[in-house]
Write a structure and sequence with these properties.
about 60 residues, mainly alpha, 2 helices
C-alpha cells in the first residue's frame, strides 16, 4: 500500500509541474481552446486506463 501511495503522490507532483507548462505553451501556440482539448485528452487517457484495468480485473476474477 505505501508503494501505491508513493506512486500516486509522484504522479500528482509530475502533473502539477508539467501540466501548467504544457497547457500554457499549447494555449500560446493554438489559442485558448487548447486548454479544453488537452483536458479532454487527459480525461480520455484516464478513462481508457480505468476501463482496461477494470476489464482485465474482471477477466482475472471470472476464471
Amino acid at each position: 500500500m505505501p508503494a501505491t501511495s508513493g506512486g500516486r503522490v509522484l504522479s500528482f507532483g509530475v502533473g502539477a509541474i508539467l501540466g501548467p507548462l504544457i497547457v500554457g505553451w499549447a494555449m500560446h501556440v493554438y489559442g485558448p481552446y487548447a486548454f479544453w482539448l488537452i483536458l479532454t485528452g487527459i480525461f480520455a487517457v484516464v478513462a481508457a486506463g480505468t476501463w482496461t484495468a477494470k476489464k482485465s480485473d474482471d477477466e482475472t476474477n471470472a476464471a
